[in-house]
Structure formats: structure tokens, C-alpha cells
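Format is chain and fold; as here:
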Amino acid sequence: MLDVIIVGGGPAGLDAALILGRCRRSVLLIDAGRPRNAVSRGVNGFLTRDGVLPGEMRRIGREQLAPYENVRLQAGEVTDARRTEDGFEVVLKDGSREKSRKLLLATGLFDDLPDIPGFRDLYGRAVFNCPYCDGWEERDRALAVYGAGDGGCGFAVEMRVWSQDIVLFTDGDTTMSAEARARLARNGITLREEKIAVLEADGERLRAVRLDSGEAIPREALFFTHVERLGCTIIRALGCDVSAKGTVKTGPYETTNVPGLYVAGDASRRVQFAIVAAAEGAMAAFAINTELANEDFP
């Protein structure tokens, strides 16, 4: 039986594998190879790796795991998992099974994109979900913000950090409060509540947001608030408590309500930065090794 199985090979999973490898733990990292940031033009805000391509960061991480013969990397998709008397068992898509004493899920989140023509085509090029990741590159441009209700207002006002030329599109939603509308006006943000017909592009750049009325509003980039979903179904299958915002409720050192099960990365926190995910992976690894040591040497 393995000491630890890690599901997910992004920054959280890779850093956890590195720490646990250095603790001489037997580790299996299983990665389905579908990173959330695959379309990103760079991982930003990660000290010493600012702007590195996501695939390059993962390559470097895997390369740095090579000296640890006790860490094994495996491509595959985990389709099921269950608790056992002495730990956990995971089932892969090919039918194979692996067992471990502890389980770390670092499967992240997926973004459910609005069903608007042009939205998916521009995602990662001129359509973004994180201003901390891409706001600097789009600074001082004519920006569109996509979001509904008072939350959309808050996000649009936050975007004033990066540009003074902002139009908030609610795509037919008219639920925004009077207080939020007044806040937009105070901050010079235009509100458009009509339905959006299409995002028009010029190559890989956004050219305009065209409304159902036919009016085209010139914009150069779009940032959106969105619906997220957990990166794997086994989180719920194992009985993890999930917040109303769709992330796992984790305690100190990425513990969950399920003994021996840890969740790190985007699925466990609202600050979804790659560097934070890596730190959470390290914290989970610390806690896992401590728990294993206490069991091995009572």
C-alpha cells in the first residue's frame, strides 16, 4: 500500500509530491492532463516563474520530481474513490485500482463559460477570468466586464484598478440594486443590460461586443465573473463538505471533514493563484507526513 495518492498534477499536486518525496514517502501522482489554465498565455504572479507557459511550469515540476524514486507519476483519470479500513482506494478509467493510507485531491476547478458565440474562441486570448493574472497585460484598454447583479458591479469597480474605460454587460440580467447602479455611475462605468449576440474578433483580439439589438460596442478585452465547478466528481462521492460557492470546506493544512483526505489548490480556496495552490500543496504535504509519522511512531 502506498503512503499517499495525489490526484491532480498542477502546482498543488506537484509541490505536494515534491515535499512528500523529500519525506521519503511512497507517492503516486495521477494526472488526467486537463489543466484549468491550459489556454492561458502565461502563469503570472509566481515569483521566479512570472509569465511562464502553464505547460512549461508543469514540465519543470515533473522534471524536478525525477530524483525521487519513491514518487511515481502516472497519466490517467480517477473515476471513483472510496474509504477503506486502512485508507483509500481509487479507481482509474482503465479499471485499475490503487490503494493508499492518505489521499490528496488537487484536481482544481473548471470554468463554465457563457454560451455566447465567440466567447470560447477568445478565452485565454482576449477573454479572461482573473484580472490579477491578466489585468496588467490589458491595462488602459477599453475593457468589457461580464457579470450580473451586485456581484457584477463589484467586479466592474475592481477592474478600475486596470482601466478607466469599462463597460459592464449583464447579458439580460436586470437584478442589480439601486445602490450598485449608483456606485457604477460614481466610478464612471457604463452599464448595458441587453442580451449579447456575439463577441466579434479581429484575429485573436476582441473587437466589439454586439448586442441583440445590433449595436456593436467597441472593446479590446473582456473579463468575466463566472460559474465554477469542481474538477472531479469524487470530491462529493467521498463526502466532502462543499461551500455554497462550490469549493471544498478545508480546515488548517488543507484538512477536510473526511479523516485522511486533503484537498489543496483551486478547489479549496477562493484565492485562485498558482503560487497559492503550490503553497497549499506544501501545507497539505506537511500535514500528511506529520499524520503518517504519528501513526508509524506512536
About this structure: The chain has a mean pLDDT of 92. Residues 196 and 282 are 43 Å apart (CA to CA).
